[in-house]
Every structure is written in C-alpha cells, then in structure tokens.
Amino acid sequence: MLDAVDRVGPIRAFSGLTWNERLSGDLPDGLTVLSYGGLGQLRQLSRHGRLDVVPCHYSAIPRMFATGALPNDVGLLQVSPPDGDGMVTLGIGVEYVADAIPFTRTLIAEVNDQMPVTRGGPRLPLSAFAAVVHTSRPLREAPSRLPDSVDLSIADHVASIIDDGATIQIGVGSLPAAVLDSLSGHKDLGFHSGMITDGVLALVEKGVMTGSRKEIDVGTAVTGAALCSAQGYARLPDLAVDFRGASYTHSPMVLSQLRSLVSVNSAIEVDLLGQVGAELARGVHIGAVGGQVDFSRAASLTGSRSIIALRSTNGSGERAESTIVPALRSGVVTTARVDVDAVVTEHGVAMLTGCTVAERALRLVEVAAPEHREELERALAEQETS
C-alpha cells in the first residue's frame, strides 16, 4: 500500500498497535495514518507530526467503524490457512477487526500459513475476500526486555494486593511480565483482557490460571489479540483461549459481570489527585486511552480492584523525573481519579479507595521516589494555601 499511494491517490488508513518499521520513517505525502494512540512504531510517526490520533475508549472503536467515523472502504487482514471446510480465522488479531468486518466494503486477505487457527472469533470463507495473497512469514514477536530489579519490586507489591480467584486484566511489557511471574504462587486466577502474552500462557500451563472461579467464560482465558514468542503462538491452539471482538472483551455489560475483575494498568504519570496520564510525553503520543478506562472503571466499580503500576521515576541519573507529579505535565487525563483504587511503585502501595483528597495526596507522596518527596510536599502545601 505504501508503494502504491502515489498511483492510487490519497489514502486515509487506520492502524492499531503495529511494529511495522516502515511506519517509523518517511511516508508518502498522500498517506494519512490514524490510530487511537501512539503504540509501537506509531509513536515515531507522532514524534514527526505524521500521526492523527482519535482519542477514544477502546470499547468505542466498533461503533465508530459501524457509523463510518473510521476508514472502512478496504480492510487488510492477515488470516489463518483455510480448514477442511474452506474457512479461515483472524488468528491472533481478532480485537476490533472482527467488529469492523461487517461494515467494510472490500476485504483483502493475506493467508499466512504460519498464522495459528484460533477459536472464539469469526470464521470466514475465502469467498468473503475480493483478493487473497498467500504468504509464509513468522508472526511478529513481542519485544523483549527482561524485568529489572525495579520491575520485580513493583510486581511483588502488585501481587500482594491480588487475591486468589481474581480475574486479571493486564497489558504488555517488562513490568506486566514481572507481575504475571509474581502471581505464580496464586490459585485459580482467571483472565479477561485485550491482549494475551507468554506470561499468561505460562500461568495457564502451570495450573495457576484455571479460570475456575470466573463468573462468566468459566475455565477459559478471553482475549482480543496475542503478542507472544514463536513458541507461545505454537501453543495457543492447544490451550483454552478464546479470541473475541472488542465489542465483547471491552463491553461494559460483559465486564460488569466479572465481580472478581482486577485491572493492572501502567501510566506515564500520576498526579496528587490520583489522576492518570498514559498518552502523552513531551507532546508526543507514546500511549493511548485504549482499554485502560474500560477495565479500570469496571474493576473499580463492579469488579474487585483497579491498580495503576508504574516506576517512581522516568529516566536516569540527574535527569530522572518523578512520575508522581503535582499536576499532569501532559495536561491530559486518561483515567479519572475515581477509577483508581491503588497506585503502586517500587516504594509501595498507595491505597486510595475511601480516602479524602488530602489523604490520597499524602499516600501518593509516600510511594514517590524519596529524592522527589520534599518537592511534592512543597507543591502540595502551595496547593492547599492557594
């Protein structure tokens, strides 16, 4: 598509999380890229002013495709090889794609013989596609950075406030991986999230994540997409994992049935009110609203607990900045203070539920980096007197 833009004419394209390195460089003038945030390589586009962000809850994306608010003339899909009945699945990328298909005029399929057949999502005949391209290429694997001592400390604190039998929603990265590893001593955990990773599969295989106490989808891990290693992708078809569209995974009506839901989400910064910024850093989109609000609100309101986990500083040495701040530097609130039950850093857990505004601020200062606490206390005193 990138090579054909000049011949085809102006193209307006929507992309979610992508690691396509071609999107980090120069793009044709005729191409406009939209997304719900700056995830993966899209943050490079944002840095160069080439990304148009549509801020929205992840649960709202299906409706925007249905109404034509997002580009839906042509859908480019990667699918699994056809089965004996000639049907393909969306493999590891069901998410919002499943919800967009009924409202997309023309579908083009890349049939990748390395894409696993997955259950739970739509099955489509090859006749549903206007064109089909056959390929054989490895699936994109999760970027790997081993958790460091800070990640491990945060993970232990997070695990300490998660009960046996909880249904977990969690993201991707070294810190979520550390959290999942710290949960290996728990029992009968469940899983309902937007993306599944090797860490989740390991808990399923160990018998830790059985899903036996889930209120719905008992015994099944529910996800919209996967970002795993090659070994993880190979194991997926043999495990009790259902891939569902965003209209199910992020639905308020569905999530409200999960009374055991614990959401674990990350942030760029948290202010002394408990408001969360998870989208912008120095004017660049490096995150998204995504499913954070969908899951945080459900976990806090009708579920068990909403947790925000982050390192107490961003950067290193003298340039390290506190991630607990008097006011959000970005000026953009991703998750409201009322949807956060606990903020966790390597310095401990700030339990916020039931606390007054003043109590919340004091607890947040206590989990900030020690070298920044005096500055935060001064800012808090100034706020109280102003």
Number of helices: 13
Q: Look at the structure and give the CATH class of the largest domain.
A: Alpha Beta
From the alpha carbons, calculate the radius of gyration and give it in angstroms: 21 Å
Question: How would you state the average pLDDT, rounded?
Answer: 95
CATH topology of the largest domain: Glutaconate Coenzyme A-transferase
Structural class, judged by helices and strands?
alpha/beta
Biggest sheet strand order reads 10-9-15-20-24-25
Q: End-to-end span in angstroms? A: 55 Å
Strand elements, count = 25
Instruction: Determine the CATH superfamily of the largest domain.
Output: Acetyl-CoA hydrolase/transferase C-terminal domain
Give the name of the CATH architecture of the largest domain: 3-Layer(aba) Sandwich
Largest sheet: 6 strands, mixed
